[in-house]
Structures are given as structure tokens and as C-alpha cells.
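Hello,

Following up on my earlier ticket. Below are the two sequence lines again, exactly as submitted.
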Amino acid sequence: MSIEQRLVEGNNAYAATFTQGDLALPPSQKYAILTCMDARIDPAAAFSIPLGSAHIIRNAGASARAAFRDLVISQQLLGTTQVLIIKHTGCGMLTFDNATARKLVKESKGEKAAEEVEDLDFLTFGDLEGKVKEDVEWLKSKAVEKGVSVSGWVYEVETGKVRRVV
Amino acid sequence: MSIEQRLVEGNNAYAATFTQGDLALPPSQKYAILTCMDARIDPAAAFSIPLGSAHIIRNAGASARAAFRDLVISQQLLGTTQVLIIKHTGCGMLTFDNATARKLVKESKGEKAAEEVEDLDFLTFGDLEGKVKEDVEWLKSKAVEKGVSVSGWVYEVETGKVRRVV
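Thanks for your patience. The regenerated structure is below:
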């Protein structure tokens, strides 16, 4: 079965029993989760997030800088007042750097593709807990985040456990 | 119960029955879903995504431009070859523009906060299906996306149904 077929068939089953079509646009619990796009994380299940209650932002590495636009929108336009940044063990962002990524792009996709990413900061990092703390501090330093509660966490893909760092 | 308490208690229950601690870092089904951070979307359930099988990228509006870094990493570093862009009905990004967002920030957080977002493009849009098509075309126009399959979809938050646009 193709990816598209599985999506459509699985969605038909989901929609057949769907009863939450009247949820409001703003998150009912007024918080946002920022976590990684990693395939091994299911935020709704692992972090106990009922449908409609929280924004769930996911990018490579759960980067606060990369999610700045999303967070401002979540807070200023949709009323959230709390952000939980959840990075995780075994993150791909711990395994390469800008030079490696650019070299891979050039080798596999050519010169024009290399130009498209030559100014791109991949926002990799070397120290997981240190980066959680640094992201929390960076976000808290922004005037636009005044009054927003920010905490930092680590999720363990090996055990399914989450723990608070800061 | 606070947000943090619910997360920790819910996660204790999740981890207690967790059995998938040996999943590989690269997505086993080699695809990425790009969808919105909206609280009313549960991609794993609605789009039938088994744990470990796909990257799930979520930002405000399911913006391909905002997810460019994530998509390059997903493909070049972690081997995905297919992207499904899934925007949705009732999206908050249909409801404001850059000027409105900047005005709100200035009024609620002050001058310094306004300066932090004065160059920020919130990437809002006015036509849902049009924007799905435009994002797909934009992504396909990139040399770094050569060989990657890109499709565009709309999820209906009112019915739980997803449909393909392009």
C-alpha cells in the first residue's frame, strides 16, 4: 500500500468515529509544546495532550529560534501563555554540522542545490541538556515573551519517559 | 492539575507500557508530513502514522518556506523521499496579516517587543487551497528537492476528513 493510500484509508476510519468537530481555534489549555519532528515521538500520547488543548510545534531539533514565528503567533494571536520545549535523546541534530549538511547536498543534488542552502543555518547542537537550557534562556530574553512561562524538558526515545531540565 | 503535572502523570502511564525503544532514527517509511501546529490536529491518529515511520513537521500554517530547513534535513540527512503538505480548514493564518500581528505585539508587549517582530514575516494567507498548491509548487521549484515527491492536502477540522488537493 502506498503512503497516500494508507493515509486515506486510515483517515476514513478516523473520520468515521470523529466527534470533535466543534473545538475552538484557540487552544483550550492555553499552552504550546515545542518538540522535534523525530519519527519516534508521538506528543499527544507521550505528553498527554487532549485534542484541542495545545499548539504542537515540531521542527528539526525543537529549535526555539526556528519556532520564533510560531510562538509569537501562538501567544499574541491565539492566547497561549506557557511554552514547554521538549528535546530528546538520540536527536539527529546531535550528529552533523552545517559543513557536513552542505557537503551532502552538493554531492547528492549538485551546485544549484548547494547554493540554495549555503546561507541556511541547520541549527545543530552538541550538548542536549545544555541546548535545552540555552533555548529556554534565549526565549526568555525576548521582550515579546514577557509574561509567558517557559520550561525545558528531555524525552527519552529509548524509554518513553520525559523529564524536566529547567 | 497544572499542565506540567498532567504531562508528568500522563507520561508515567505512557512509559509504563512503552515497548518501542529500539526504533531507528531515520523514518522507516521514508516520508515527512508537514502540517499546522493547530491544537485540533492529531497527525498520528488522523493521518495513520505508526510510531517511527515518518517525520512530522508542524508550524503555523504548515508553511513550506518556514519548514525549508526541516525538509532539507529530513531528506538529505535522514533519507526521506516524499513530503505531504497538509493545511486545514479554519486555520488561524487565514484570519490576520503582518500589520495586525505587529500592532497586537506593540499594544500588548511594548516598543522593544515590536522591534523584535518588525522584520518577521508571519506568512499568513487568504486562500486555503490556493496556498496548498502554491506551497507545493514552491517546494518543487527548489533544486534541493529534485527527486522528492511532493503532494498537497487539506484536513477538515470540522469532520476529521482529509482530501488531496494536488
